[in-house]
Amino acid sequence: MTTCAHASAATRPPYRKLLQHLTIGAWRLLLLLGLFAVGLPLPAAQDPPELSDHALPLVDNPPPSQNWHQWLDIVVLALALGLAAWLILKRRSRRGVFWLMVGSLLYFGFYRGGCICPVGSVQNVGEGLFGFGVVVPLGVVLLFALPLIAALFWGRVFCGGVCPLGAMQDVVQYRPVKVPIWLQHVLGLLPYLYLGIVIMFAALGAGYLICRYDPFVAIWRFDGLEAIVLLTGVMMLLSLFVARPYCRFLCPYAVLLRLCSMVSRKHLSIYPDACIDCRLCEDACPYDAIRPAVHEDKGGPLARSKALFIVTCLLVPVLAGIGGFAISRLSGAVFSRAHPDVQLAETVAAIDAGRIQRSDLIQTEQQRLENWRERDHDYAALGDRAQAIYDRFVTGGWLVGIFFGLVVGIKLVSLCLRWRPKEYEPDRGSCLSCARCFDYCPGASGCDGDQSEEVRA
Amino acid sequence: MSAPVLPEDPTTRQSWLSTNRMATLTAIVSAVFAVVLGGMMLVNLMHWRALDPLVVKVPGEPANFTAELARDKRELLELQTRYEKLFDDPKVTDVAIAAVEEELLAERQAYREAELAATRDYFQRQERLQVGAWFLVGALVVLVVALEVARRSRPVEPRPLGEQPADRLPRERRIAHAAVAVLALLLLGGAAAAGIFGPGAPPRPVAPAGVAPAEIVEADSPPAVVPDEPLTPLHWPMFRKGDGTAIASGFTAADAKQLWVIDFPLPGYSSPIIAGDHVFLTGGIYGERFIVALSLDDGSEFWRHAATDVPDSISEDLSLFADESHSAETPATDGERVYALFANGDIIACDARTGERVWARSLGLPEDMWGHSSSLVMAESLLIVPYEHENLDTSGIFGLDPATGEQVWKHEGTGLAYTTPVVATIGDRTQMICSGWGLVSLDPATGEELWSNTEGDLVQGGDALGASPAIAGDLMALAAAGNPVLAFRVSADGAEKLWEVESYDTSDYASPVTDGELLWCVSNDGYFGCFELETGTKVYEGQELDESFYAALTLCADAVVAATRDGSVFLLDRGREFKQLSSFDVGGEVSGVPAFAAGRMVVRTYDQLYCFGSDE
Q: How far apart are CA A120 and CA A213, in angstroms?
């Protein structure tokens, strides 16, 4: 295979000139059409009609929601997960994974508009587990569970080939820069914090953060608030040079997938047979998920770090306490304001104090205020409700903070431990099963999993 | 997927025509294109949202109403006024009128074009956004393909075989250990600081001074007035004064100003009524419904009574339509007692002086998806309760003994009705004319049907009439949405149709008003029409105030009074010319009809009560 690659690089295809002209022509056409779409002046106004003969369309009631769609989603998801596992573990085909990713992007992203997705289902399940009297539909539970079950058997095949959010970032990945290891460890903590906050918001009725701040849904739906569109643009630009930034440093669902994948029954290996230490795959992974083989234990600073290890272990409960205190303060003061009842209490208090006028409110707030005045209009009850929600956010903040503090502590402890793989192998937690490394392994090039026997022979 | 391309000779330089370079160049161009296009779309999106014609930023004007458009409209209106005044000047020649008319037509055409262009701008921006989105997707597809081609054709420098990697892990992990510890502590410290110095617990809203809805204050304190003496005079004792005219003679637009305003946070679409110096209002929230008596002098509260413990009341099943309230029905008073009907069918009578309950009963829940809204009427010493809805078993028009609440008569319901009957003496007989699916006249003393006109062309819109008739002498006019403006001459035996005029100045809610000579009506969205009552001749039509109207029109001494859901009370000239005399801003929606007494006008908004008049 290496020989073939050299040959293809050395040969100049005869169609290159034609390709060049086509490419330049395509740029110009794209540019002209784009300017036409956005920047042309308005056409001259035509004479307005004296009287409109416009026939008012009949208004039909919208059809009931199509429940079969949800089950179709589940079937498609299950099939895609199975196909991804087969392509990654059996066929060892990056090309297949790529096209599966494109297909998932088209179906779950553009066709279904990014809703509902397993990533967002974390909120439904979190609300069902920790919320008050919320029943999660079976379909949503399945959407949530199937990728996790797949991760328990085959690693993060969902991330690699099925997730539309991951696919959006993967397909635009151009020259991913190497994020420093220390920064990866720091940023890698954010998904844990985000997971805790997301579940707290959902459970306490303050909204679904993942959906509200989905950075890609604006593309899939061709619509979105200005701030979200801007976020989308930033995330897409970032994805050109940082491999899957959302998946690695923000996605709360990835936390669960990572944990499942770490204990997965099977997982992809870079080489189909045995590692020959060629080091070709060392820089192949844009996610820094390949553990390099270390044959010589040169000792080094870790040999002196037993004391550090003990201190770090003792620090874990302290960190949990600090985390609980810090996040509980933040949660009460800031996060509780996202709840509609707390917002309403603040609005009513501000209006009655003359700080704002009713006309200052946006339409949703006005409607909320009117509904309260119409239906309830009980100042004491509203105050009690807002206080109760504030208290819940403080309690929730303690739980989230303790969880996050423990995560930080465990991360610190893990960084004290020795780690000496003898062969190049993917880190099961970080590996997104994108199958890029296959192409770099001379043992696997040009063959699939079935052919690995031949390679070995 | 093919393997990475390994160059044969590391010193070989790639031609600029190499696949890798072309793909890279394509990726760069398409990325720049996507960024530029995305930026332009973002700007376009912000402009587009700011131009939404359905969003009102300045009261009365849509968001796409530009300064230029406003100037054009102002000039057009000025020209229109100038043109109309020409006819009053006998010295002006026809030639001069024709010239101004020509100019007016040209201005009108120019204004229409400008308005059309503004609206078109909005939709063209919307269309461009949609087209731009497809181009953005196209650019992203090109970018993805180019990136993939570039990645696959990128030469890779192989590492020398056999060389072992340096054991860099301990150092990196040590740095990571320190970084995680420091930055996590910084993060948590920042979170704690934000929380500690943040706003703290949410403020507890406190009910404003005035009416406290949560407190049920029965009339324990002795009233400042002598009981057993009816309140007089009955200035405005029921909905639209009760006689179908809705004319208030004492109030003049010329020197009226705001006298007082109080918070009245008991929502309801019912109108205030006035007897003596008492203003009566109903309102409620879920599970709590009240009738309140306030002073006409300063808005202070005389008493309030909670409509609780009504026998057979079934308030827990009450489900309100979004545009309904717990008290859409206007109360009525005979000076001795005040009567109130609520959305759940509870009806109560209280002593008008003290607020003590006299009797209470339940009529059962009204079965109507839009809710019940017909108001109470006093006639022939009886309390008339128009309570027609879909359940014919409990639906009907009831005549009740005002002292006991006992049923004196019942007229079986004919179906839905949203209007309030008008009582008028025609000839020597008192008639109560009810409009719904047709016209039915009843004797208010006995409930006997005098005549009916339930066939023909009364209801053309497929729904019951929503606006009540206006009546003057033996002439009666209807201006309800879905139907032409209709006029009848009413006799003891029936109603003879005089004329009908197709007009879009009719309403689902706001009843018309007449002074016997002219008839004024207004559509839901603020188009005014005026007709001669006898002949149906159009005086003017389609004059716009561009606000939303629910409240019925009334007449004061010198003006047509029109209150809007956008928070204005307009006073229009009672003459043959559409002219705004003055207006009051009341800051909140007005759905009920203003009430008049002793040179004063009381206006109820969603949560406030205003009083206007002369302070002399």
A: 11
Q: Nearest CA of chain A to the CA of B573: how many Å?
A: 29
CA nearest neighbour of B529 among B583, B467, B586, B457: B467
Q: How many CA atoms lie within 13 A of B307 on its CB side?
A: 34
Percentage of chain B surpassing pLDDT 70? Answer: 83
CA distance to partner chain A, nearest, from residue B69 (Å): 15
Cα A298 to Cα B168: distance, rounded to the nearest angstrom: 10
Which single residue is written with the structure tokens 């108001």?
A: B375
If you ran DSSP here, which 8-state letter would residue A445 be given? Answer: T
Confidence tier at A109 by pLDDT (50, 70, 90): very high
- Per-residue pLDDT band for B455 (boundaries 50, 70, 90) equals low
DSSP conformation letters of A5-18: HHHHHHPPPTTHHH
> Is residue B319 scored above 80 in pLDDT?
no
Contact A182 B2 (CB under 8 A): no
Q: Which among B591, B189, B178, B302 is positioned nearest to A330, based on CA atoms? A: B189
- CA–CA gap between residue A444 and residue A451 (Å, rounded): 9
Which residue does chain A place closest to B3, by CA atoms? A439
pTM across the whole model: 0.53
State how far the Cα of B65 lies from the Cα of B57, in Å rounded to an integer.
9
Listed by number, the residues of chain B in 82-141 with a beta carbon closer than 8 Å to a beta carbon of chain A are 112-113, 116-117, 120-121, 124, 128-133, 135-140
pLDDT at B462: 52
* pLDDT at site B413: 67
Checking if the pLDDT of B347 tops 60, the result is yes
- ipTM, two decimals, is 0.75
Q: Which residues of A touch B195 (CB under 8 A)?
A: 326, 328-334
pLDDT score of A2: 33
| Secondary structure class of A51 (helix, strand, coil) | coil
Q: What is the pLDDT of residues B549-568, one digit of tens each?
A: 889 999 988 889 999 988 88
**Chain B residues in contact with A415 (beta carbon < 8 A):** 173-174, 176-177, 180
Report the pLDDT value the prediction gives residue B440, as an integer from 0 to 100.
Answer: 84
B263 sits in which H/E element:
strand B257-263
Summarised one tens digit per residue, pLDDT across range B183-227 is: 988 998 898 888 888 787 888 777 665 444 434 344 344 444 455
Cβ contact A239:A177 at 8 Å: no
More confident residue, B501 or B318: B501
Average pLDDT over residues B125-129: 83
Q: In what order do the strands lie in the sheet with B278-285?
A: B273-275, B278-285, B288-295, B301-306
| Distant-in-sequence, close-in-space partners of B134: CB < 8 Å, separation ≥ 6 | none
Task: Calculate mean pLDDT across residues B606-616.
Answer: 82
pLDDT digits (tens, 9 = 90+) for B20-30: 888 888 888 98
* Cross-chain residue pair B285–A278, CB shorter than 8 Å: no
The CA distances from residue B551 to B287, B424, B511, B561, B591, in Å, are 26, 21, 8, 10, 5
Contact B158 A94 (CB under 8 A): no
CA within 13 Å, CB half, A21: 3
Residue pair B125/B42 in contact (Cβ under 8 Å)? The answer is no
Return the HEC string of A81-111. HHHHHHHHHHHCCHHHHHHHHHHHHHHHHHH
Residue A391 has, within 13 A of its CA and on its CB side, a CA count of 6
The answer to whether the Cβ–Cβ distance between B161 and A173 falls below 8 Å is no
* Chain A hits for B45, Cβ within 8 Å: 226, 229
Answer yes or no: is pLDDT of A19 > 70: no
**Cα–Cα distance between A126 and B509 in angstroms, integer?**
48
Q: Is B607 on the interface with A (CB under 8 A)?
A: yes
Question: A392: which residues sit within 8 A by CB, 6+ positions away?
Answer: A204
